[in-house]
Amino acid sequence: MGKRDREATRARLLEAARLRFARDGYDATSVRDVAADAGVDATLIFRYFGSKKALFDEVTADLPAGLLDGPQEELVARMIAAVVFHDWTRYGGEHPLVAMLRSSAHEDARRRIREEVCATYVEALAGLAGGGEDAGLRAELLSAWLVGIGILRSVVATPALAGATAADLAPHVESVATALLGRPMSGAASDG
């Protein structure tokens, strides 16, 4: 098998795994299912990734680059764009966090959720929340709200959120983020 064939096979396995994990979760997804979806033998998963866990880790490690770059007052708007409005078609239309949430009965998935959410979202928000005993709590409340928006929009597909645009959410994002972080926040990210 040539290098291009190996790369194509690996890419097909990743694509099949993204969709399976997003739809079925970690425990309900078998190596055989992923391989069958990709049209290859299951042993190739172990050859390319080493284990089902390593495959899961790779397909759920896709946070958009630059999330924390840019004006601080636009951070929450950038988070909304990343979680809610980013093109996640490679994951069946859902943020990789949704695949992890579907897999939350598995300890490794719970650990990854804590690491991804806390290290990426909560830490950044807590830094903006300033001092005070409840800065961490306010950051976690805002994080929970953001994740909830993403789940209601992509998984539950509630009518108002599923049809909303970033501009529709902007005044509400500004209001909630400003209230919870105790500082002026923008509901929209600049295009630059």
From TrEMBL:
<dbReference type="Pfam" id="PF00440">
    <property type="entry name" value="TetR_N"/>
</dbReference>
<dbReference type="InterPro" id="IPR036271">
    <property type="entry name" value="Tet_transcr_reg_TetR-rel_C_sf"/>
</dbReference>
<keyword id="KW-0804">Transcription</keyword>
<protein>
    <submittedName>
        <fullName>TetR family transcriptional regulator</fullName>
    </submittedName>
</protein>
<keyword id="KW-0805">Transcription regulation</keyword>
<keyword id="KW-0238">DNA-binding</keyword>
<dbReference type="InterPro" id="IPR001647">
    <property type="entry name" value="HTH_TetR"/>
</dbReference>
<dbReference type="InterPro" id="IPR050109">
    <property type="entry name" value="HTH-type_TetR-like_transc_reg"/>
</dbReference>
<feature type="domain" description="HTH tetR-type">
    <location>
        <begin position="7"/>
        <end position="67"/>
    </location>
</feature>
<feature type="DNA-binding region" description="H-T-H motif">
    <location>
        <begin position="30"/>
        <end position="49"/>
    </location>
</feature>
<dbReference type="Pfam" id="PF17920">
    <property type="entry name" value="TetR_C_16"/>
</dbReference>
<dbReference type="InterPro" id="IPR041678">
    <property type="entry name" value="TetR_C_16"/>
</dbReference>
<dbReference type="InterPro" id="IPR009057">
    <property type="entry name" value="Homeodomain-like_sf"/>
</dbReference>
